[in-house]
Amino acid sequence: MKIVRFAAPKGSIHWGIVEENEVKETEGLLGSFTGKNFVLSEVRLLAPVEPSKIVCVGKNYVDHIEEMDGDVSSLPKEPGLFLKAPNALADPEDIIPYPAFTKEFHYEGELAVVIAKPMKEVPEDEALNYVLGYTCAFDLTARDAQREDLQWIRAKSADKFCPIGPWIETRLDPTDLGIKTEVNGQIRQNSRTSLMIFSVRKILSCISSFMTLFPGDVVLTGTPSGVGELRRGDVASVTVEGIGTLKISIGSQK
Amino acid sequence: MKIVRFAAPKGSIHWGIVEENEVKETEGLLGSFTGKNFVLSEVRLLAPVEPSKIVCVGKNYVDHIEEMDGDVSSLPKEPGLFLKAPNALADPEDIIPYPAFTKEFHYEGELAVVIAKPMKEVPEDEALNYVLGYTCAFDLTARDAQREDLQWIRAKSADKFCPIGPWIETRLDPTDLGIKTEVNGQIRQNSRTSLMIFSVRKILSCISSFMTLFPGDVVLTGTPSGVGELRRGDVASVTVEGIGTLKISIGSQK
């Protein structure tokens, strides 16, 4: 099932379910059908989440640690986590203004997990029972600010630094999915979720060991190798097998 | 004016205004009076905020940088910022379980700012126009996790690591207020907001330069010297002149 949040042609915002070329409106996320249907191509898809927080994994593919000059001889024993704030959310097809404060604006394509119910101190083998579904995300990053600042807030949580979508796919096994990032049609990242150092269930269990995850909260699972710069006018997309493609454009400096 | 969020004797949750020993219920935050009043001592005060994010300043008093072995010969030119997630909120009088993952659980008493309206790219001299009011907060910190982890999420955003209250004081000039932290009745931190490296208006302007602050969002302005450990059974309080006192207790390990 594909869950979407969308703006109807007149601008009002709704939740719904995609079936082929149709969007069936629901009463809120996971509510019953209202009976009102829209043509998929006539609505504007929005980030399909309204999270209280976005938790991310910093280093979760060996090849990405290598390219960031990390030491792969001693891999982390626990997921390295950080936060993105909800102001960072951006929609599918959104234009992301090139941020004024950075000269190194980087894409990181990722698999995102959406939480279904409150989750605290949940063991690994039960963790996937708390998942609503999966979607695609960009962990946009100002690499220079990431190096220079006390913590990664400006580097990771500036407005529109977390495009997400196009929808939540609820029927999916996250353990071995292709994940691919393209910029202007050229493949830049091409990996599989089976190459994660920490599995989705391990990541969720670790987070829940110290903080409660709430329904709608989002977890970004890390990026494979091939990260690189975005320039004004670039079109970037991340495609996760079994979900679909999230596409964004980079605008001129705001 | 003192704005409170509170649980009525029967458990229902409301917003209101404190006048002497009475709480006058309002229709939501800043709504009109409902006509229903409560005796202050008969309600349970809650964290007086429902933020989409909590932004904090890491090093904002020279004496605290010294005690953390920081280099004070070259003070930061911009506020060092980080996030706390909303799951970290805790209420006045709350019992904070001693976290299982730390052996160095520290208090940091702080002045907290609550935002009134959407704030993006606002210059310093207009920043205070976007403030709803001020309250007291603890930036509770697992110092060992802060040293060891990739970023400060477990160290700063574990459940109940951000007690806040007792109310939002709307009529206050934040530039020179006494701020005092006590543990079991002994003074541990005793400073003035005039000793901040970055003023409230500077902090807010800096944050708004890259991320939109929304109504109800919270900004913690840093802690003076005197941070230290909390132990099971401790009672800790932070008092800010012109606001009042936020008191918490430390429980046994959960």
Automatic annotation (TrEMBL), chains A, B:
Residues 53-247 form the Fumarylacetoacetase-like C-terminal domain. It comes from the Bacteria. GO terms for molecular function: acetylpyruvate hydrolase activity; isomerase activity; metal ion binding. The keyword Metal-binding applies. Residues 1-48 form the Rv2993c-like N-terminal domain. One of its GO terms (biological process) is carboxylic acid metabolic process. Signal peptide: none annotated. Transmembrane segments: none annotated. InterPro entries: Fumarylacetoacetase-like_C, Fumarylacetoacetase_C_sf, Rv2993c-like_N. Keywords: Metal-binding. This is FAH family protein.
